[in-house]
Amino acid sequence: MPPLRPLPPIALTIAGSDSGGGAGIQADLKTFSALGVYGASVVTAITAQNTKGVIAVEDVSPRMVAAQIGAVFSDLDVNAVKIGMVSRRETIIAIADGLRRFDRRAVVDPVMVATSGDPLLQPDAMAALEDELLPLAIVVTPNLPEAALLTGRAIAEDETEMARQAEALMRRGARSVLVKGGHRRGSDATDLFFDGDRLMRFPARRVETRNDHGTGCTLSAAIAAGLAEGQPLTEAVGAAKAYLHAAICASDGLKVGEGRGPVHHFHGWWRR
């Protein structure tokens, strides 16, 4: 009989379900598994979507979200938490209350708009996200449009403005900020990390592909996986960036759907 392996570290994703499997809870759990981390989940919403777009969204009640959080934390030894799509103010408050109750902080991915352009955050939830979740963030990971919405500034066109918006989000209570530069034009997709003391660049070559659905979810989940394994934050960010870039590069081998397909989460495991 083979010896028992120790239980891997546990990461929890609090996010919406993507019926197409490319983003949200599904992308997070795939990322955790690919990186050797056990994944638990709290579902905040159910979406009917595919690679072409979001067809419908139905929120899970705040009471049920709170119950899921209590069930997970009261039994599982959770090492890291990632928060993704949360569309309602009441749900955001329930999540924040749960994190404070169990004395936890999280990687916060402020999902506001899907890759297809469909809005995922209700207008009255913006203030709750800023007031309730940013102060509980180990790191917040907005893309350029999300950073602009959160700071009330124009979408950054250069790294100087990206750094200014990172500073502005730090003043809102986040411990650190990773502004993702994938929406900028050019041959590279550089992300900027700022924690009040250090401003760090995480560059990557831009990959021309239609398979970019769920990239933000995947990156934030990979950061949480690294934190669950005990990596320092900047090391977890660098490893997550490398993992996502490799998943994007390998994504053309999947050919899922007719629209914007997912990245290849298991590029290191599956044979083409």
Question: How would you portray this structure in words?
Answer:
The protein is an alpha/beta fold and 272 residues long. It has a single domain, classed as Ribokinase (UDP-N-acetylmuramoyl-L-alanine:D-glutamate ligase, 3-Layer(aba) Sandwich), CATH 3.40.1190.20. Helix content is 36%, strand content 19%. It is built from 8 helices and 9 strands. Strand 5, helix 4 and strand 6 form a beta-alpha-beta unit. Helix 2 runs parallel beside helix 3 and helix 3 runs parallel beside helix 4. 49% of the residues are buried. The model has no long low-confidence stretch (mean pLDDT 91).
Q: In a nutshell, what does this entry contain?
A:
The chain is an alpha/beta fold and 272 residues long. Helix content is 36%, strand content 19%.
Question: What descriptors fit this protein?
Answer:
single chain, 272 residues, UDP-N-acetylmuramoyl-L-alanine:D-glutamate ligase, alpha/beta, three-stranded antiparallel beta sheet, six-stranded mixed beta sheet
